[in-house]
Design brief:
By secondary structure, the protein is α+β, with helices and mostly antiparallel strands. It is built from seven helices and four strands; from the N terminus they run ααβααβαβαβα. A four-stranded antiparallel sheet has the order 1-2-4-3, sandwiched between helices.
């Protein structure tokens, strides 16, 4: 079980059974569903957003847009109302909620097929910066995308791709139901490299 008395400078670690060496900020980052009872300042958020700002993007179009709200604010409540019921059940203690939105068009009006990839780069940069500050982020697909676009008045060519909860590591997992509590404490796992690496055609899977 994770420790429950936390401070800003402590990050609870989960064992990561990596097969090859990786840097600690990647190895130790994970996505909890509980957060410490501690606000995230706008200064901290700006550092996280700045990390995302410097992510790579196709043709440097930077198609990402972030809607954010701090708990207690109107924007936070508006985002919360757009989450599916399952996500609302555990995000109630998240200090920050966000929406990740992409512009699906290039500046000259063509389809930007790389926009989702680029938002992913932004989110990954933000997640690693957040982790270095003791802050966790948990990305969610469970959001009413069309209602969110309408609620925040994005034009037709925009797509709300994800919701994100953020807060300091160290929440009390007793706030979760038994199924989520079990998941919160479950070992980390990922596919092995030979399940997704192809040194040639798809049918000729070869290990490194």
């Amino acid at each position: 079980m994770l420790k429950k008395k936390m401070n800003k400078d402590y990050t609870p670690l989960k064992e990561t059974p990596n097969d090859h060496p990786i840097i600690d900020v990647i190895k130790n980052r994970w996505s909890p569903r509980v957060f410490a009872d501690m606000p995230v300042s706008q200064t901290d958020l700006q550092s996280m957003f700045e990390a995302g700002r410097w992510a790579a993007s196709s043709n440097n179009f930077q198609p990402w847009n972030i809607v954010w709200g701090i708990k207690g604010s109107e924007t936070y409540n508006r985002i919360m109302d757009l989450l599916v019921e399952f996500n609302q059940s555990w995000t109630v203690n998240a200090p920050v909620l966000m929406l990740g939105v992409i512009n699906t068009k290039t500046p000259d009006g063509k389809e930007n097929y790389h926009a989702l990839h680029d938002l992913g780069q932004f989110s990954a940069h933000m997640a690693l910066q957040a982790h270095s500050m003791g802050i966790a982020i948990h990305q969610m697909a469970g959001v009413d995308f069309e209602a969110a676009k309408k609620e925040f008045e994005f034009p037709d060519e925009y797509h709300v791709a994800t919701a994100i909860a953020a807060g300091y590591y160290g929440g009390d997992d007793d706030q979760l139901n038994e199924d989520l509590k079990k998941e919160e404490n479950a070992p980390r796992e990922r596919k092995k490299q030979n399940e997704f690496l192809f040194n040639g055609n798809y049918v000729k899977r070869e290990s490194l």
